[in-house]
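Message: I would love a firmer grasp of how sequence relates to backbone shape in proteins. Thank you; the sequence and its tokens follow:
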Amino acid sequence: MLEEAKGERELNNLNEVYLAIISRYKDYIEEKESISVAELPTLVTPNDEAVAKKASEIKAEFQDFFFDKDFYDAGMSAFSFVKDKVATVVLPVQFWLTPHETLEFMVGDIMDKNVLLCSLLIRLGNPSTRVFVKSRGSDKRTFVYFEFNKKVYSMDMGDGVKEYADRDAMIASMGLDDDTTAYEFNDKLYVDLS
């Protein structure tokens, strides 16, 4: 019991040291971690081995996975996994985790979790999947959406799953105006909607 308390105290001290180091070098880390809009698609990695493994585990939940029949349910399983099993963390610096790292550490910020979800849904067979980011002032919203069976579905970690008649209806529901910045991306493209 005494050894366990000592080990926990040492771990807490070590975490405090790591936080102090990160805080001291915050500006340097963020400078090296900056990503241009052209590089955003490189974050989505459906062919990563950890993403492929997780997608295979999700497909294994179905007797015989057929995209047309099972993708929506598989997508819901992927969403639940990322939303409920991957812990949301806010780091003191802007730091991009790859989907592989997010799966390895089972933590990430909202963007990391959405990039992982997008990677999984593409790996499950839906190349229409995109990460959508909308910001206005300090308010930022990030979610994933995809097209399936002539409908559009958005998956928001805080707002759940919503269904739309089409992409235009989803975009209209966003309330985009001149003060809003919006963009979307996946592994193949980046689109500025502002």
Observations:
- The two ends are 58 Å apart (CA to CA).
- Residues 1-34 form one domain.
- Residues 19 and 92 are 8 Å apart (CA to CA).
